[in-house]
Amino acid sequence: MVGRRRGRGNSVPQQAPQNQRRGPHRTPREPAIFSKAMDCESDVPHDKLTIAQARRGTPAHRPVRVYADGIFDLFHSGHARALMQAKNLFPNTHLIVGVCNDDLTHKYKGFTVMTEDERYEALRHCRYVDEVVRDAPWTLTPEFLRRHKIDFVAHDDIPYTSAGSEDVYKHIKEAGMFVATQRTEGISTSDLITRIVRDYDVYVRRNLQRGYTARELNVGFIKENKYRLQNQVDKMKETVRTVEEKSKHFVYRVEEKSQDLIHKWEEKSREFIGNFLELFGPDGAWHVIQERSGRMLQALSPYSSPRGSPSSSPTRRRSCSPDTRSPPASPQR
Asked: What pLDDT score does 165 carry?
């Protein structure tokens, strides 16, 4: 038996202008109401509409009541898109969503992840939904359509084989009450479950870390210890990886500091050598100072002759004045 596809949609029709009439105002702060038998009783006549009339925004005295049904397990964006399409089919739409209960779903489709109450609440808090029908039927009967005053049924147009029927919406289509929506490819409840099954070990280990018991996860003693050991190994790997990253960062900082110190040292060395050459070089200030100081000492200090060599002494002899010279000796007779 083919599983029933419900509440999936893709492309969105153009939305009606803002000035078009909408259904009864519902504040976003409140969830959608649950449908009751008394909600469908009204003194206002419920005239049968054609799709053309509904798209023109008629009748003026009431919104167009559109019904969409499904399982809506693991409520996701594909469900929300389908409901958005249904809500925007007509300028003035009151969207009613039917949700099948657990017994009916498990019988015709299979086990669900979410309970029926969880699925009801998920639909009540979708912004496009105005009313939720609990315990919705698997196949829509004329009596159900009359009781809820349904004008049109919205669902994807693929023939839906289930409950011994080639298409459970065949009689709705023949009555001219069916409006097609489009499914969202790449997202479905089955896709989500497949991801969980594929990564089963990852999610079990994660939930064990978060405090779930092996019994709650339906895991045996051996597997529990295996998963816990794997968690410890992963922690050790993460610790080693962290230490390696910190070590790399430390080494990088040391290299960076070393390069900075070497660069500064080279700059200081060049500066020191330059100052040294400027001060002590052949044309430096220190050489000029030495040369000048030598000249000054030479000018201030008298020359002294070495002992034992009077002829070679550079010391000048003291000359006598002419008037003080002694007279020459007279010859003796």
From this structure: 76
